[in-house]
Amino acid sequence: MVFAAPNDALSRAEGVLATDPTPLTASVAHQVIGIWQRDWGDMRLALDHLRRARDLAARADSAEREADVLATLGVALVHAGRTRQGLTAFERGIERGTGHTRARVLYRRAYSWWVLGHHPQALEDVRRAIPVLRQADDVIWTARALTLRATVHLALGAVERADADFTAAEALWDTTGQEHDKADAVESRGLAAFRSGDVPAALRLLDEAEERYAKLGTPTFMLNIRRCEVLMAAGLAPEALAEADAAIAVLDGIGGQSTRKAELLLAAARAARLAGDPGTAIARAAVAVRLFAGQRRTWWEAHAQLVLIDARVAAGRGSGRLVADTVKVAERLSSFGAPAAPEAWLLAGRIALGLNWSADAERYLEVAARSRRSGPPLARMTGWAAQALWARATGSDRGVLEACRRGLAVLDDHRTTLGASELRARATAQGAELAALAQQVSLERGGPRRLLEWSERWRATALSTPPTRPPADPALLSGLTAFRVIAARAEEARMDGRPVPALEREQRRLEREIRSRTLHIRGHAPGHGGRFDAGRLLDRLGDGRLVELAVLDGRVQVLLCGGGRVRRFTGGLLAEAEREAEYVQSALRRLAHPGGEARLPLAETAGRRLEELLLGEAAGRLGTGPVVVVPPARLHRVPWALLPSLRERVVSVSPSASAWLRARDTEPPPGGRQVLVRGPGLATGGAEVPEVAGRYGRPTVLEQADAHGNRVLRELDGAALAHIAAHGTFRADSPMFSALRMADGPLIVHDFERLARSPYRIILSSCDTARLASVGADELLGLVTALLPLGTAGVVASSAPVNDAAVVPLMLALHKGLSDGAGLAEALRDARAALPGDALHQATGWAFTAFGAA
């Protein structure tokens, strides 16, 4: 029962011991308690009960019983880090047992070999066990053995063999009532999906396994480890680190398995390294190395050493000694047949390149590059990165660009399997090095046009296709509705001064549920779009200019497109520009309130400095036509209208030149339907809405009780123009939950992604609606970027707090321009000029930006 109904089995075993049982019966009861404590409780208690079970079996003079207990004890000793004692227990168990019992002992030793990282020994023991278990018609233990063999195959990268064993095991599990084993089988299939490159399926299966474990009331440390691995591959390293650290705390609290703690520490170290925290990675990896060494787990120790070295290099500790250490780890991983071996060879090559050890670097990179032809996508990416660096070291610019092209194509294919826009955006981080290498070679050898092409190759790619949604997901829809209700109730309670902990807990639970369901969605976008055509861009610009800002080695490179050519100018340091942009945001925040007039000259001075840093000499060569700015993701909050050379111009912003071209080609929907929405709680009550309504024929106006989330979404779908006056909130911790406040609660980004077609033009007249989170290589997440792939060709929104009263005349002037036939960017330019000249109104105009090309 212990793997069918664990807590019931524990209670039954304790009940048996209270009845003064025979030694044989007592041995079984103590073994059950020992298994429960070993897997879900205190290892000290587990070892105590299992030793008593062994002694009682000897007293009962039952060699088969003693062999079975010795096998259970051997697993516990290995998990406690007492590897030599555990292997001795297995040897004694194999000697004492015969036939069917010996096969079960062999299975458990195979499991321990897997825990220790001795995969050939594990395969040999399970090979000997399976035929005997099958002959005995032992369905449960045969299914366990098949599941274990599949898991070992996965560790060795043999995904097809693993799939065959998982399928056979699953058919057997369906005939049993072993609920814990069934949950473990689902978890294992999640691991298999991940190894084959299907991240959404892996997340879905791991979540399903967690639900099954929760019903049994048992901790899930192995599941935590596996989910950390998947989260890291999905670009969610901070979440993986938090999950690993939380699991370690629980494990320490119950005195659990030393082996699992070491594996969790390794997961935490990897996550910290990917999250850009090498100090934490070094601390976690160093402890993991010591634990693995003490447990005699050389396979695992080598993986932990790789992470430790990588983190030390990231902390700036490159040296000849580290090269030697990395090569030693790479050789050990290669001898184990570990899929991580190419990563180690690539790291050795990188360190050697940093030391100018060209011959050594070329040798190591050549070995790493062999992984580019086969295996899961991220392994092939490692191989292509090594090939690109090797070509760079040998002076082959063409080789660098070809390797970068091939590697990014692999990642493109991988991203099309991801349905959630968040995962697609975060996954681009895997290609950042290849994109940077290609841009560097283009800067040095290829000229401005080639640099533009490579800048576009990896800019805002997550926006090239809309997020994938299932035709109907009732659970997701009900979750979104429930979230809106709970969030509204929590906000109401806060305003009334009432306690809200219970509501906030439920809100967080619903957020987790919504996010999980969206991350499970598998993509089906065919291919990865057409190749960027610089000539087509130049033709479409007409007398306008497009300014694309690329960042190489921390410095801004200004690519000025227009007049039939692409020119390059050098800007300032990105870090300095980011500081100035933050200063401007602070000034605009202060100017949004009466009494902040003294900040106006400071804001204007900062605008001039920003222009020098971001445009350089290009500022004087913008011509007289409209200007499109394509900034890097980290500069998305720059109020471009504040820059002197752009202040009187028609200026719009786009995440990429490709996105601007798509927006230019987007046709407005037939019918020209307008939708005006007025949410609750605005200081002016959305005073512009009634006047704007009078400017159009018969617009749909939703306000007060009519402005309910689902009704608003229905009306927005396919509209030609939408104006939403509603409080906006930006969630830096979870940008997909950034929201607009409606009568029944917040409309979040996930809601807008359900639209079949978002409005052709949309105006968001409240604070912070254009705030976005920079993720991945050069991607943005937030409300504006959610709308652009769904049919919206133009958005006007603010990237800073604004004064509600000052917004009203700006919006009225903006709609006047639109109704007179102007586009969004032109109407916004004219609306700024029509405002009063005081600091409050000027700052309000600067805070709003036109995005896209409508």
TrEMBL record:
Q: Which InterPro entries match?
A: CHAT_dom (IPR024983), TPR-like_helical_dom_sf (IPR011990), TPR_rpt (IPR019734)
Superkingdom as given in the UniProt entry: Bacteria
Q: Where is the CHAT domain?
A: 606-852
Q: Which Pfam families match?
A: CHAT (PF12770)
Its name, as the record gives it, is CHAT domain-containing protein
| Organism expressing this protein natively | Streptomyces griseoruber
